[in-house]
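Batch manifest, entry 17 of 40.
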Amino acid sequence: MNTKSKVARLSLLSNSTLIILKLFVGLVTGSVSIISKTIHSTMDLLAAIIAFFTIRISDRPANVYFFCS
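Output type: structure tokens
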């Protein structure tokens, strides 16, 4: 796994951890604003998931036979 993939995986891990912590704190304190920030962080996680798979696909070698007829 190359550096780009490692960084993208770290982003997934950190975003997931942040979501769990925010959700826990929001539910314990009953703070609607923290729970809404949790939803916002979930959207960030979705973007990180898309970036992770995009990086993995872009690292594949080109299929030279795709353009040949």
